[in-house]
Amino acid sequence: MAKKDKAVVGIDLGGTKMLVGVVQGRKVLASVKAKTDPAGGEREFFATIAATVAKALDEAGLKPGRLAAVGAGCPGVLDIKTDRIVSSANIPFIKDYPLARKLEKLLKVPAAVENDANMGLFGEQRFGAARGCGHVAGFFLGTGIGGALILNGELYRGSSGAAGELGHIFVDAMGPACGCGNRGCLEALAGRLALAGEAASLAARGGAPHLLKEAGADVRKLKSGALSRAVEAGDRQLRDLVKRKAALVGLAMANVVNTLDPECIVLGGGLVEAMGEIIVPAAEESMRRHAMPDIAKHVAVAPAKLGDLAIVMGAAQWARERLDA
Fold first, then answer.
1. SS3 105
2. What CATH number is attached to the domain comprising 138?
3. Are residues 78 and 212 in the same domain?
4. Taking a C-beta distance cutoff of 8 angstroms, is the pair 325, 6 a contact?
5. Which tens digit of pLDDT belongs to each residue from 125-155?
6. Cβ distance 262 to 148 under 8 Å?
7. What is the largest CA-CA distance in the chain?
8. Does a structural domain hold residue 127?
9. Contact 236, 269 (CB under 8 A)
């Protein structure tokens, strides 16, 4: 069977859920979500992967023999010299771990693994908001803030494979502690957890009545959707808070613009999907205000287009190109 007739599986692999897609060319034939529980151990984790891939292939109407390769986007740092994942904060047993080799053994096809944010931006550059651009930066605003870079049309991974940690651009010397161990990182100031913390305080003080009515002041309940609905319902102080956080993202974007002169910056992640109409223009305005004007005028800012499928499509295409599948 010709390679072009075979499909590639892309996996968005997370600590609490995974999304598996069967991709043929530019088309996702089927996608299946599943919950994951790394605390259940390595065997259970891979059993879930195998079952989810099998279900996705079945829904796509394909037999395993029609599968050419598998690509996976996984949170964590990849050592490009050994092709092992150094660590993944959300999956405890992944430490100096040969994930690609494990997937090859499990699924009986060649496998390629990369950082999930890298795969998200790669998907957007090949198929989505940055299609056709050779120099792209991506900021993905979720629980934290992920980042990735594409330079000269290729994923930029740095000397060790860890390049693109844009969520850890230094923003404020007096800022809060970050999960990376430093203080004042963009993620610690503008990720969803940071936004939710300040939103909860705002709600408790009476400044966001719609948010208080729907979700209370419990940070754990303040997901992107709840924040978005409260803004739409008229919580103006909450809208202003979101815009201030977006302006901080724009400040980090300006640093990237001045350093790398990209053609395009892609903004994605759950917060952008929920409140992109507020976040994208506020971040862009801040970027243009802080970056060197002669560089910034050439930079497009775009919301991600592929949504949940960005990592799946990026990982599948990464495997196809890297493994010539």
1. helix
2. 3.30.420.40
3. no
4. yes
5. 999 999 999 999 999 998 889 999 999 999 9
6. no
7. 65
8. no
9. no
- The domain in which residue 250 lies consists of 132-303
What is the tens place of the pLDDT at every residue in 221-261? 889 999 999 999 999 999 999 999 999 999 999 999 999 99
Which one-letter amino acid corresponds to residue 28?
A: V
Query: What angle (nearest 5°) sits at the alpha carbon of residue 183, between those of residues 180 and 184?
Result: 115
Q: Which residues pair with 18 in a beta bridge?
A: 13, 34
Find where tokens 């705002």 sit.
202
Q: Which of 102, 148, 143, 103 is nearest to 129 (CA)?
A: 148
86 with 170, same domain: the answer is no
Q: How far is CA 193 from CA 144, 224, 245, in A?
A: 7, 10, 12
Coil, strand or helix: which one is 94? coil
Q: How many Å apart are CA 69 and CA 10, to the nearest integer?
A: 9
112, 100 in Cβ contact below 8 A?
Answer: yes
Q: Helix and strand tally (H, E) in the chain?
A: 11, 13
Write down the residue that tokens 């690509």 correspond to.
71
On the 0-12 / 13-18 / 19+ scale of CB atoms within 10 A, 158 is exposed
| Residue showing tokens 């992107």 | 224
Contact 289, 247 (CB under 8 A): no
The whole model's pTM is what?
A: 0.92
Token pair for 159:
């000397």
Percent helix, percent strand, percent coil in the chain, to nearest 5: 50, 25, 30
What do you get for the CA distance between the two ends of the chain, in Å?
Answer: 12
Cβ pair 290, 251 in contact under 8 A? yes
Residues in Cβ contact with 228 at an 8 Å cutoff, skipping those fewer than 6 apart: 274, 275
Complete edge-to-edge strand list for the sheet that includes strand 264-268: 154-155, 145-151, 136-141, 264-268, 300-303
Structure token digits, residue 32: 């299946």
